[in-house]
């Protein structure tokens, strides 16, 4: 047994009474009043002790392996320290404990129920690594209609603490997500689809990717989210069905639907089944982009060198191969964020080998190969929201067109030849820019990697930006966008209707709720760069 000095000890004289779920009891010894309570009170801040008999003390100690996780003496009951003590429980099954720590301060702990949160189940089933710790930045991708959705999210919020950030992408459980974001200041609510480019303005680089993919297409979206936002040597945690798990010698077989050059970027480190809490699923945990060149077979190392670009002569959005024609042309990069958008020029682009290791090294030498050209900070929250609405609707904001025409050279010479290309995040944006400006726009994996590099260094290019300003702008923009969505009439009904309609479409892979059903792939393979 641990020494009591290492944990939060509840002395024997502090007696607790166990009431039915949903009731809250104020212990008179923890209250300023000397009189005891005669009945449970829902307004109380001191909560019952779970899984203990009446008049029994509890010793809560830090977990041996995971920072921010606490465990009771029995070794089976997990807790996290509540980020927002005193708030009403999120669910009826939620159990809290209010105790005094070794310094005499009142602290509140929340029981982490493994039946309601499979992340807690993974810890109890022997997971060796969690990677989510105080100060971490975590991206959570969740798109299932689940009444237990908020349990795991709220405990992750407790784990990362006030210095961390939790970006939650969920277009389905919008009401629960909005409610949690109102109470927990480190949660960024992103009521968007799981396609990463739609929420690129609302998120920074993260340390951990936590996702629950249900189909091959959602696995593809998890991969794209990693290439957009996950730091090199960062970690991923996937909660998947058993049919995704296969034995393989190349990368992580969960990503078997992807090209082998993409699979090799994910190195599985651990696989944890969560029986008896869930018999049909398991956690796959691993690292992202940790391999060296000599550890990768040559066939997995090279990307296709063909680049696609919009034919600026026609202006109709037709795609043609311009690698040979553009390999010596200047390349400009457009980057947009919650603070505004910026324009960069990338040098020696076509001298870089098309594999993720060479690209990562190129991006890390940002000051040497990237030249800042211009930026346009948003003048107000309404300007930022207006631009984000244009991104969500697949259009281009009028101010962006004016910005490009003002800060880029003419797109063609007197002979009608393209003299440079502009790397943009999406094909829809490229089509609109070409139609309006005749600028040749490129959309490919390599330019996505360059945009990823800009995201890692963007805070240095906006004047008067202090540490934390970018995160604050992301939170404000995400919550304004969330509020706008929730204020729309029948928004919740439309989301549930969309979820039901997608569930009724036959598809190519089973879903979590019905393994025999098959899900249609919402995106074509050509929509994701190869």
Structure description:
With 530 residues, the protein is of the alpha/beta class. It has three domains: 1-112, no CATH class; 118-300, Vaccinia Virus protein VP39 (Rossmann fold), CATH 3.40.50.150; 308-461, no CATH class. Helices cover 27% and strands 21% of the residues. The protein contains 14 helices and 20 strands. It has helices at 118-124, 149-160, 174-183, 216-229, 260-263, 323-326, 356-364, 366-369, 381-392, 398-407, 427-437, 445-457, 469-487, 491-503, and strands spanning 8-9, 59-62, 69-72, 78-81, 96-100, 106-112, 137-141, 165-169, 187-190, 206-211, 230-241, 266-274, 278-288, 308-310, 319-321, 331-336, 340-346, 370-377, 421-423, 441-442. The strands form four sheets. It has a seven-stranded mixed beta sheet with strand order 9-8-7-10-11-13-12. A six-stranded antiparallel beta sheet has the order 1-2-3-4-6-5, with helices on one face. A hairpin with a 3-residue loop joins strand 16 and strand 17 (340-346). The longest helix is centred in the C-terminal third of the chain and has 19 residues, at 469-487. Mean pLDDT is 74; it is low at 1-56, 304-325 and 491-530. Residues 30-49, 491-530 are annotated as: Disordered. Keywords: Methyltransferase, RNA-binding, rRNA processing, Transferase. Residues 31-46 have a biased composition (Low complexity). GO terms for molecular function: histone H2AQ104 methyltransferase activity; RNA binding; rRNA methyltransferase activity.
């Amino acid at each position: 047994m641990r020494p009591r000095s290492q944990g939060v000890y509840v002395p024997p004289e502090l007696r607790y009474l166990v009431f039915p779920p949903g009731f809250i009891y104020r212990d008179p010894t923890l209250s300023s009043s000397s009189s005891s309570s005669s009945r449970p009170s829902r307004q109380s801040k001191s909560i019952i002790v779970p899984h203990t008999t009446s008049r029994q003390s509890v010793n809560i100690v830090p977990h041996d392996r995971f920072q921010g996780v606490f465990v009771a003496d029995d070794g089976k009951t997990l807790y996290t320290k509540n980020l927002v003590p005193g708030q009403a429980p999120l669910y009826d099954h939620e159990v809290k404990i209010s105790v005094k720590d070794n310094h005499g301060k009142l602290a509140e702990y929340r029981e982490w129920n493994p039946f309601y949160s499979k992340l807690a189940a993974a810890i109890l089933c022997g997971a060796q690594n969690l990677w989510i710790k105080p100060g971490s930045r975590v991206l959570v991708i969740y798109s299932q209609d689940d009444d237990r959705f908020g349990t795991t999210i709220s405990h992750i919020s407790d784990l990362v603490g006030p210095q961390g950030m939790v970006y939650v992408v969920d277009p389905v459980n919008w009401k629960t997500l909005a409610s949690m974001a109102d109470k927990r200041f480190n949660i960024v609510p992103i009521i968007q689809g799981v396609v990463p480019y739609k929420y690129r303005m609302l998120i920074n680089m993260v340390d951990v990717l936590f996702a629950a993919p249900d189909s091959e297409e959602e696995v593809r979206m998890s991969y794209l989210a990693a290439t957009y936002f996950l730091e090199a040597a960062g970690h991923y945690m996937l909660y998947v069905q058993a049919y995704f798990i296969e034995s393989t010698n190349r990368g992580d077989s969960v990503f078997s639907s992807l090209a082998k050059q993409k699979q090799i970027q994910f190195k599985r480190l651990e696989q944890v089944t969560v029986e008896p809490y869930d018999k049909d699923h398991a956690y796959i945990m691993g690292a992202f982009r940790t391999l060296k060149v000599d550890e990768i077979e040559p066939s997995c190392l090279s990307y296709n060198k063909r680049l696609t670009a919009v034919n600026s002569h026609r202006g109709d959005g037709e795609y043609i191969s311009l690698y040979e024609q553009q390999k010596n042309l200047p390349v400009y990069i457009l980057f947009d964020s919650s603070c505004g958008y910026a324009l960069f020029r990338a040098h020696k682009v076509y001298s870089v080998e098309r594999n993720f290791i060479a690209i990562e090294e190129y991006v890390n030498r940002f000051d040497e190969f990237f030249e800042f050209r211009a930026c346009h900070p948003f003048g107000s929250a309404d300007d930022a929201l207006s631009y984000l609405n244009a991104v969500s609707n697949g259009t281009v904001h009028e101010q962006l067109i004016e910005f490009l025409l003002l800060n880029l050279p003419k797109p063609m010479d007197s002979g009608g030849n393209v003299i440079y290309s502009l790397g943009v995040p999406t094909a829809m944006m490229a089509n609109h820019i070409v139609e309006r400006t005749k600028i040749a726009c490129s959309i490919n994996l390599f330019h996505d990697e360059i945009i990823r590099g800009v995201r890692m260094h963007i805070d240095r290019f906006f004047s008067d930006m202090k540490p934390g300003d970018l995160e604050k702008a992301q939170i404000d923009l995400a919550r304004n966008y969330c509020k706008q969505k929730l204020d729309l009439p029948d928004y919740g009904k439309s989301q549930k209707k969309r979820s039901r309609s997608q569930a009724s479409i036959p598809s190519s892979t089973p879903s979590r709720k019905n393994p025999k059903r098959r899900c249609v792939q919402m995106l074509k393979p050509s929509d994701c760069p190869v």
